[in-house]
Design brief:
The structure holds 2 protein chains of 2 kinds.
Chain A: H1 9-19, H2 40-54, H3 69-82, H4 92-95
Helix pairs in contact in A: 1-2
Chain B: H1 6-13, E1 33-42, E2 45-46, H2 48-57, E3 63-64, E4 77-78, H3 86-89, H4 92-96, H5 100-115, E5 138-143, H6 149-162, H7 171-174, H8 179-188, E6 194-195, H9 203-216, E7 222-229, H10 234-242, E8 272-279, H11 281-286, E9 293-302, H12 315-328, E10 338-339, H13 346-360, E11 368-370, H14 373-376, H15 383-397, E12 399-400, E13 416-417, E14 423-424, E15 429-436, E16 440-447
Parallel strand pairs in B: 5-6, 5-7, 10-11, 10-15, 11-13
Antiparallel strand pairs in B: 1-2, 1-8, 1-9, 3-4, 7-8, 9-16, 12-14, 15-16
Helix pairs in contact in B: 5-8, 9-15, 12-13
Classes of the chains: A mainly alpha, B alpha/beta.
């Protein structure tokens, strides 16, 4: 017997902090739009927050396939494995 | 995850309300509109009640700035909204989409619509109208002088330190100045006329004047009108301080805002929102709404003189005062209270006094004047909204709150400025004046009911 996959706490925390979605609603099959009521801007807001908390760039090949929390978790895990930095830090000298 | 266009994203969140036809009476019918709701977020806290109690108690709200460390600023004081936690008042998702100025606007608008008896029960992101108004006939005109400065500076910092990908997408809906009114409409399902007006520190009064015009023109039965501002921000404080507009009385914040006093040295920045619900009188009567006061006139003009200084002879302000009286069908002898702009700057208070004297002559001797800004600072584009609320409360309660810190009235300000204790007297008619950088002048006339 295996435990059901646990949602990455960084995803759970972002969904609560950004949108007030309680832990109880965070089933793996919950759909981002229909169940969690995340419109497109909110999904990108979530993406920016997750890139901040994970430090890696989250850039799914086909965004339309990211429909459920489980899909989102897979994308985040894959991004962490790939490990492309989310925000290459700028140096002031380059910025001027 | 490609974002939709903004228009699609907004459509996504827009609740659809089935049309209902409540237009039982002909319109327009009246030059005067009813005030049926008030809402406020001020340095006294959330709500009209703490505002009015604070004004009557004469307690200053100015203090050392807490929002940021002001240590290296020339001006280190402001009137901040105390302990405002957005998610105590708004759904978390909605709060995230808003700059603080718009958060204040939404909280004040909900209070005003609630008092007007126009809201049904809240449902998540939405708090729809009940059945007493046709949503297509309810408009919103919410102003700001500066708008989403916190969002702009926060996200600019993220751009500078993390690059473009770190800028959040909600910037696109949090930044625009119209989004306070837009989000009020989305939250409450208000489908009538909706725009913002911008005229610096006259903005909220011009918003209320525009709402009056919308109802008079028959374009709406109800308009939620006012202003919101959240400019206690390092950038704005630094800039307004550099311009010499702000009081530097850092060691004595409670004594810093002193309109009409000879020792005034500038205004104290305040923040918050003030909103009124204006309504066509026949509409209010048909649904049995409680009318708190009436707005009977609006005068608007421009000095066409200088970006920051008022015309020293009060010329533009005089025009606006006379237009407001004419618009309301009033004579100078009818006016028995003026809620002054009274910023506590050297130039404004003197020019305003000159203008009031020019219009009212000896009548000004018997007209009690007060400056709300002595207690809560200058809320810039929200000032006229909060002062409209204060003016309605003064008319409804027959009492004019005192102007704080009036220890020695400037002889150049030859007005009956209420000082010390609030003054109780029967009030029928009041004016509220607002003047802004850019030479903007707006005067509203209110009637007791």
């Amino acid at each position: 017997m295996t435990d059901p996959p646990r949602l990455d706490p960084r995803i759970a925390s972002a969904l609560h902090d950004l949108f007030g979605i309680p832990q109880a609603d965070l089933r793996p099959d919950a759909e981002l739009d229909a169940d969690l009521q995340l419109d497109s801007l909110s999904v990108v807001e979530l993406q920016v927050a997750l890139e901040e908390s994970t430090g890696v760039r989250i850039n799914p090949e086909d965004p339309s396939q990211v429909r459920t929390l489980a899909d989102l978790q897979s994308v985040v895990e894959a991004a962490i494995v790939t490990g492309q930095p989310a925000f290459p830090s700028l140096k002031l000298s380059e910025d001027r | 995850m490609e974002p939709l266009g903004i228009a699609e994203a907004v459509l996504w969140t827009r609740g659809y309300h089935a049309p209902a036809d409540h237009r039982e009476e002909p319109m327009p019918t009246s030059r005067t509109v009813a005030v049926t709701g008030l809402g406020a977020v001020t340095p006294y806290g959330v709500g009209v009640e703490p505002l009015w109690n604070g004004l009557l108690a004469g307690r200053s709200t100015a203090a050392r700035i807490r929002r940021f460390d002001p240590s290296d600023h020339a001006v280190q004081i402001a009137c901040e909204v105390p302990g405002f936690e957005p998610t105590e008042h708004l759904p978390r998702r909605l709060a995230r989409q808003l700059d603080p100025f718009a958060q204040y606007a939404l909280v004040a608008a909900a209070e005003a619509l609630g008092q007007a008896g126009l809201l049904a029960a809240a449902e998540g992101m939405h708090w729809p109208l009940g059945d007493q108004a046709d949503s297509r006939r309810v408009g919103v005109v919410i102003a700001s002088g500066i708008g989403a400065i916190q969002e702009a500076t926060d996200q600019h910092e993220r751009l500078r330190t993390g690059g473009p990908r770190r800028v959040r997408p909600y910037l696109a809906i949090a930044l625009p100045l119209n989004m306070a009114g837009g989000q009020v409409a989305i939250r409450h399902g208000l489908r009538g006329p909706n725009y913002s007006v911008v005229s610096a520190c006259a903005s909220a009064s011009d918003a209320i004047g525009s709402a009056l015009d919308l109802i008079r023109a028959g374009r709406a039965d109800v308009v939620v009108a006012g202003g919101a501002e959240a400019a206690v921000n390092p950038l704005t404080i630094a800039g307004f301080a550099a311009a010499g507009a702000l009081s530097r009385r850092n060691a004595e914040p409670a004594r810093a805002s002193r309109p009409f006093d000879v020792d005034r040295d500038g205004f104290v920045t305040g923040e918050g929102a003030g909103v009124v619900v204006l309504e066509r009188p026949a509409h209010a009567a048909a649904r049995g709404a409680t009318v708190l006061a009436e707005v009977s006139g609006y005068g608007i003009s421009n000095d066409a003189y200088h970006p920051t200084q008022p015309a020293p002879d009060g010329d533009g302000a005089i025009v606006a005062l006379r237009l407001a009286l004419d618009d309301a069908g009033l004579d100078t002898s009818d006016v028995d209270h003026i809620n002054a702009h009274g910023t506590s700057t050297r130039l404004n208070d003197a020019a305003e006094a000159v203008a009031v004297r020019a219009v009212f002559a000896s009548q000004a001797d018997r007209i009690p004047v007060t400056s709300t800004k002595s207690a809560i600072g200058h809320l810039l584009g929200a000032a006229g909204g909060v002062e409209a609320v204060a003016t309605v409360m003064a008319l409804a309660n027959g009492v004019v709150p005192a102007t704080l810190n009036l220890e020695r009235r400037d002889t150049a300000c030859d007005l009956d400025v209420v000082a010390g204790e609030p003054r109780k007297q029967a009030l029928r008619t009041a004016l509220s004046t607002s003047f802004g950088f850019g030479g903007h002048n707006a005067v509203l006339a209110f009637q007791a009911v």
